[in-house]
Design a protein that fits this description.
Pfam families: GerE. It is built from twelve helices and 13 strands. The strands form three sheets. It has a six-stranded antiparallel beta sheet, with helices on one face. Strands 8-7-13-12-11 form a five-stranded antiparallel beta sheet. Helix 1 packs antiparallel against helix 2, helix 9 packs across helix 10 and helix 10 packs across helix 11. The longest helix is centred in the middle third of the chain and has 40 residues.
């Protein structure tokens, strides 16, 4: 039997390990192993992600640790067939054992025990179906072999005490996962608009940057990385950029109201149109003393960069043919009709015919209007054609 006479330090350590679960997608092993040690179990499993597809088996994902899993793998991910278990439809968030559902003879004769549990050395089972905030169920199973004693009432009480913490940890895990996914989607949307983003600290040191920022800074045409910091090419611009960053942080700390982002123009040695730069400080909690530790996002727009609009989406939303879409995108990238015709290897008269058809379908009369409606449409926000194999 497991020793359930925990002291406060041991209990605190177990709770801390459980909350590690909420912070990463890859830390299943530590909390499950802590539960295994706590209850002297041979296996501990979590059963996730049920799917309910018509005319197919109901499958879940089982995350398992235990004596039959190699030390190299530590955690094993297996399909779980819901229809064969007798533990379905139990009261959520309530710990139960086999004894609560059936007598010993019924358990020993059950198909589930004989053809599933017996093959992996599982006899005693303590379970709880944890209801998550989004309405899902995560099934926790803690098991022992027949040679070990059954789970005691004290162990069931301890497991019940842990349920609320497991529940919160799983809810936090889901919320963080969704938040991270949403943040990734926003970052990708910004990238599709050809906006370079650089995350910096108060000293201007670069913490993160997206792919467009990496390309732009590599060119060193107006902005570059020097000593790990975001730096303007010309000294006057660089002084203004430093002052802009300092003022942005200062205003956010000293004001209790939202502050409009600060902006400036950066000259380019190539002679191309200046880069537009906006600095926006990432808000910190009001109680946090983050002087010197704040972060900001620098948005950089290259006005002469090519549009990343998806031809697949542009074709759909404007009802254009493939040839008409290709011409529209070349015009959006700043080419004249003659230059676009040459780029697409078509006759000028053909390009003019395409343009007349495009005007008719989009309801515009000038190329400038056509470019405006394309760049203001959702086409630049859609996945790049290369990403979807178009």
């Amino acid at each position: 039997m497991a020793d359930v006479s925990f002291n406060l330090n041991q209990y605190s350590g177990l709770i801390e390990t459980i909350y590690d679960l909420s912070q990463s997608k890859s830390v299943w092993y530590k909390p499950l192993q802590a539960l295994r040690d706590c209850f002297a179990a041979n296996y501990v499993t979590l059963i996730l992600k049920p799917t309910f597809e018509e005319e197919e088996e109901e499958l879940g994902l089982m995350i398992a640790i235990g004596s039959g899993i190699s030390a190299e793998k530590k955690v094993q991910y297996l399909p779980y067939r819901y229809h064969i278990t007798p533990f379905n439809n139990q009261q959520p968030d309530t710990v139960f054992t086999v004894d609560d559902l059936m007598d010993e003879e019924a358990w020993e004769q059950s198909t589930y025990r004989k053809y599933w549990c017996a093959n992996v050395g599982v006899y005693h089972v303590m379970s709880v179906d944890i209801a998550t905030r989004d309405g899902g169920i995560v099934k926790l199973r803690i098991t022992r072999p027949e040679s070990e004693p059954n789970f005691s009432n004290e162990e069931k009480v301890l497991c019940q005490m842990l349920v609320s913490h497991l529940k919160r940890a799983l809810d936090i895990h889901q919320q963080l996962d969704r938040s991270n996914s949403l943040g990734t989607m926003y970052n990708e949307a910004i990238s599709r608009l050809s906006i370079a983003t650089v995350q910096i600290d108060e000293s201007g040191r670069i913490l993160e940057q997206n792919v467009f920022a990496n390309e732009l800074l590599t060119l060193e045409d107006g902005l570059k990385v020097q000593g790990g910091k975001l730096t303007a090419h010309y000294p006057n611009d660089n002084r203004e950029l430093k002052q802009l960053i300092q003022n942005s942080f200062k205003m956010v700390r000293e004001s209790d109201r939202p502050i409009l982002p600060e902006a400036m123009s950066i000259a380019r040695p190539s002679g191309e149109v200046n880069l537009g730069v906006v600095v926006e400080v990432i808000p910190s909690p009001a109680w946090e003393n983050s002087i010197g530790q704040g972060k900001a996002v620098v948005y950089i727009r290259d006005s002469v960069a090519k549009s990343q609009a998806s031809s697949h989406v542009a074709k759909k939303i404007f009802g254009l043919t493939t040839a008409e879409t290709a011409l529209t995108l070349e015009l959006a990238n700043g080419l004249s009709l003659e230059e676009a015709a040459e780029r697409l290897n078509i006759r000028r008269n053909t390009a003019r015919a395409h343009l007349r058809s495009i005007f008719s379908k989009t309801g515009v009369r000038r190329q400038t209007e056509l470019v405006r409606i394309l760049l203001n449409s959702v086409a630049p926000l859609a996945c790049n054609d290369a990403d979807v194999g178009i």
